[in-house]
Amino acid sequence: MCKMTSGKPIKSHAIHANNDKPSEGTRIESIDAYRRGVKLLHEKCKALQRSNERLVFRLHKVRKMTKVRERDVERLKARLDNYGDGWRTAPDPAEVKEEGEE
Questions:
Q1: Using one digit for the tens of pLDDT, what is the confidence trace for 60-87?
Q2: Residue 10 CB neighbours (<10 A)
Q3: How far is residue 33 from each of residues 1, 38, 59, 71, measured CA to CA in Å?
Q4: Which InterPro entries match (predicted)?
């Protein structure tokens, strides 16, 4: 009888070429090793999922912050226009030199 592990049957003659029957101890050890591997893989998957969930949360938060900022900038522009402020024609502060600078 062949066991199924990863979808492929294990060939008994490949494991035990000397035609010895596997002892109960080696069978239990291989099952335990398989279970440890599955448990380790499961833990890694859970950690990756938690990390992905944090990233998605952060993306949503940044997207929301960006929308709020854009809305605030538009409100500020509209208010400055209502006050008649000449902010659109004002020189760029980075290009204006202070007195004493050359």
A1: 999 999 999 999 999 999 999 999 988 8
A2: 11
A3: 21, 9, 39, 57
A4: INO80F, TFPT
Quote the CA–CA distance of 102 and 98 in Å, as a whole number.
Answer: 8
- Token pair, residue 42, equals 């499961």
Give me 35's structure tokens: 């279970």
Who contacts 98 (Cβ-Cβ below 8 Å, separation ≥6)? none
Instruction: Please give the Cα distance from 78 to 99 (Å, whole number).
Output: 32
Can you tell me the distance from the alpha carbon of 68 to that of 76, in angstroms, rounded to the nearest whole number?
12
For 34, the token pair is 């398989």
95: its two tokens: 């290009």
Tokens found for residue 77: 């522009």
Cβ count within 10 A of residue 77 = 13
This prediction has a pTM of 0.52
